[in-house]
Amino acid sequence: MDSDHPELDEMQRAYKAAVELWIAAIRREEELASTNHSVAQVDQWEQAHDDEEAARNKVKAAKQDYEDALRKKFFDF
After folding, report:
1. Chain-centroid distance, C-alpha 66
2. Which residues contact 12 (CB under 8 A, 6 or more apart)?
3. 46-54: which pairs have CB atoms within 8 A and are 24 or more residues apart?
4. Cα separations (Å) of 60 from 31, 38, 55, 56, 69?
5. How many whole angstroms separate alpha carbon 40 and alpha carbon 18?
6. pTM to 2 decimals?
7. What is the pLDDT of residues 31-66, one digit of tens each?
8. Distance CA 32, CA 37 (A)
9. Which of 8, 45, 47, 77 is a Cys-bridge partner for 32, taking CB atoms 3.0 to 4.6 Å apart?
């Protein structure tokens, strides 16, 4: 990481943390998809899917913020 740009370092850390949470959400959804489903388990599976989608959206937002900051740094726009 470039220590001359702590704001970029923080954005990169936030992006990486969001990706890790997304991975965990994907694994949770996959875990629930691999069981015999009762009504309660189907509800948990659906919630896991919603959680995965929310985590994905956070990753996309963090990635966009980081990319925008990099464009500003390298291309000044």
Report:
1. 13
2. 1, 66
3. 51/25, 52/22, 52/25, 52/26, 52/28, 54/25
4. 23, 33, 9, 6, 14
5. 28
6. 0.84
7. 998 887 788 888 899 999 999 999 999 999 999 999
8. 8
9. 45
